[in-house]
């Protein structure tokens, strides 16, 4: 019989969450490096380069891969022979481990969990509570899978109750383009099939944490229907041409994982959940002999990449840029930003719109300014700011027209695509929308030379800051004429991939 102490579980959860905040799983890095070597789309290759460079910096500096340090998800398998030396419940122990991990002073992690989700939406400040799933199984061990799941990829989870005769493959291939780029592809797509609606979602969440082994499966061939579905979806999802960050390219998914469960004769529940470019998960076991230990990965798994913008990148001074200037920018163009920009995301936007609607003065002058959709991690030691990557621009679409029309704002910076209403507002106001690479938060923070909080301090990481930046790399996602690289890029690469497939079929 294993006797597991309270402190061992708390310490193990805390250490695991710190570990995954700055170490990508090695299988993920190898898959990303392979995708980088094979990528032919210049925009997608540059995005992959930034993700890989960022990952190596984080592994060396022990700082978060992404500013969104996730909502914690924990799968527990408790052996029936396990006993406890504890005065706390198991979930309380897990949450204490989360609390300690996110407050660790040498690597403070961002609190993103909000209580009262349809009301006050108050930040719990320590990222508790975790979402915990527990099974009781035979044995004398405690098995734990810890993940920190970013909100951008969670927002793209999808579920469908299909009819028994419906094609799962057809639904997934129609659903993935609807997910857009807010989940920061490429990543792993988890698929759950069967059971009941909630069981299918749980299967998809578990599936996406399995090791990346699609190339091994391709080499040996499928042994069952689920493996055949994995192979077909891997090929066909990548043939959509969505590519890294949705810019168009050869790799949209690094692997597709499928888990199944028996279901009712009248149903075929299907769920898909993607894991993003900041994939973070780790498995450990406790047997009563002490806390889990985690050895640093071999840094030779990381390609030695330093991000270098191309010579054709346009240098822009944010302190002097004008509306006439931005009208010369082209969708897909690389821009290096220097000077002062503002920040703000969901909660700040809502307050700004409320002030505009009331005719009240705004706390900041937005005339000829850019706003960066970001909620940074708090700085440690001598940092100006902690990791500060973009949040999903699409969530700000409903605020875009009133902000552009009432504030003199020139442009916005986020990640992923803009919806039709936002694109129209950008075109009508001769503005622009830019993207920074999701999954490159620490790399981006290196370009920030000064940070000053200006307004809405009570919102914490969602407050309005002023950043001073030097050569911060971005891509024009929507230009002043309303052309979107998230439309043109995938369309171009889907056509290119289809042509290559057709050529192979003809030659065969």
Helix content: 25-40%
What would you report as the Rg, rounded to the nearest angstrom?
A: 23 Å
CATH architecture of the domain at 314-489: Alpha-Beta Barrel
User: Tally the helices: what do you get?
Assistant: 15
How many angstroms does the end-to-end distance come to? 61 Å
Strand content: 15-25%
For the report, how would you describe the main beta sheet?
5 strands, mixed, barrel
The tally of strands reads 19
Provide the residue-averaged pLDDT. Answer: 96
Q: List segments where confidence is low: pLDDT < 50 over at least 5 consecutive residues.
A: none
Q: Find the CATH superfamily of the domain at 314-489.
A: Fe-S hydro-lyase, tartrate dehydratase beta-type, catalytic domain
CATH top-level class of the domain at 314-489: Alpha Beta
CATH level 3 topology of the domain at 314-489: fumarase
Give the CA-based shape: globular
Biggest β-sheet: strands ordered side by side in the sheet: 14-15-16-17-19
**What structural class do helix, strand and pairing data support?**
alpha/beta
Give descriptors for this structure:
508 residues; 15 helices; fumarase; four-stranded mixed beta sheet; five-stranded mixed β-barrel; alpha/beta
Summary?
The protein is α/β, with parallel strands linked by helices and 508 residues long.
3D architecture notes:
- This protein has 508 residues and is an alpha/beta fold.
- Among the domains are: 152-277, no CATH class; 314-489, Fe-S hydro-lyase, tartrate dehydratase beta-type, catalytic domain (fumarase).
- The chain is built from 15 helices and 19 strands.
- α12 links the parallel β15 (370-372) and β16.
- α1 (6-22) packs across α4.
- The longest helix is centred in the last third of the chain and has 23 residues, at 485-507.
